[in-house]
Amino acid sequence: MAITIDLVGRVVLVTGGRGGVGGGIVQAFRAAGAEVETAGRSASEPGDDGARHGAVHYSVVDVREPDSVGAWIADVLARRGRIDVVVNNAGGGPYADFAAASPRLYERVTALNFLGPAYVAHAAHAALDDACGVLLNITSISARRSSPGTAVYGAAKAALESLTTSLAVEWAPRIRVNAVSAGLVATPGAVGHYGDAEQTARVAATIPRGVFASPREIGDACVLLASPFASHITGAVLAVDGGGEWPAFLAHTPNARTDGGSRGA
Quick check: 17 and 27 in contact, CB under 8 A? Predict the structure, then answer.
């Protein structure tokens, strides 16, 4: 028997949903039949603010500004009448040596990766409570392992995972709150970050599954957690990382299997 997830009639908000991981999340919810509202900091096309692209409505919102977030939530409620799922996906940060970076950079990275999701959650709370809805926070493996060069980003994602588990208790039983911890994902930005195709393949070989996740695979995990199949899951941090990373010591252990394992999809 085939199992399908039907989210027809549900209104889903995705921050940072124009492309990359956010684009995969938007695709997955649309495939499940949901109506999607997404937002980004700037208009990438003329007239983007308040624009409809297919069945996805795009708004210009700076999640680092509470007033901008509040206006967005109010606008969605005025047009849609409800909000069922919120996905806090917007995030990121540049590579920067901690000792050389400025305090201003620390503030910007923390605002985007922690305060922004907190502002969105706060503004959407009443609507989610009315709908017995779902809040999903996209975090990173950087939250749970050392993150040299992106130390403040990793710390902010760790804080977001802590917020996830706390809100799951505060907002139970009407709102479920979970996080998706993404491993390495095959986005356009990843190609430049890890180097050419050969170098990227070497990085992929450090993942037990042997490949980067696709943005859609992150999106599919979000759809699962937003669906009735996850009705008793709250306060969880779901790792979508292909098994994490091969332990470094295995590279120096005789006969250890360190080739990255199967390359199957």
Answer: no
CA 115 to each of CA 36, 69, 142, 215: distance values in angstroms, whole numbers, following the listed order: 23, 11, 17, 24
| Residue position matching structure tokens 């603010």 | 49
Tell me whether residue 95 is one of the annotated catalytic residues: no
**pTM of full prediction above 0.70:** yes
Domain containing residue 201: 11-252
Residue 148 lies in a domain: yes
User: What's the per-residue H, E or C state across the chain?
Assistant: CCCCCCCCCCEEEEECCCCHHHHHHHHHHHHCCCEEEEEECCCCCCCCCCEEECCEEEEECCCCCHHHHHHHHHHHHHHHCCCCEEEECCCCCCCCCCCCCCHHHHHHHHHHHHHHHHHHHHHHHHHHHHHCCEEEEEEEHHHCCCCCCCHHHHHHHHHHHHHHHHHHHHCCCCCEEEEEEECCECCHHHHHHHCCHHHHHHHHCCCCCCCCECHHHHHHHHHHHHCHHHCCCCCCEEEECCCCCCCHHHHHCCCCCCCCCCCCC
CB 262 within 8 A of CB 203: no
* 6 found inside a domain: no
The reply to whether 1 falls in a domain is: no
pLDDT at position 262 is 43
Mean pLDDT for the chain? 90
CATH number, domain containing residue 151: 3.40.50.720
What lies within 8 Å, CB to CB, of 23 at 6+ separation is 17, 215
pLDDT band at residue 175 using 50, 70 and 90 as cut-offs: very high
| Catalytic one of 58, 106, 119, 153 | 153
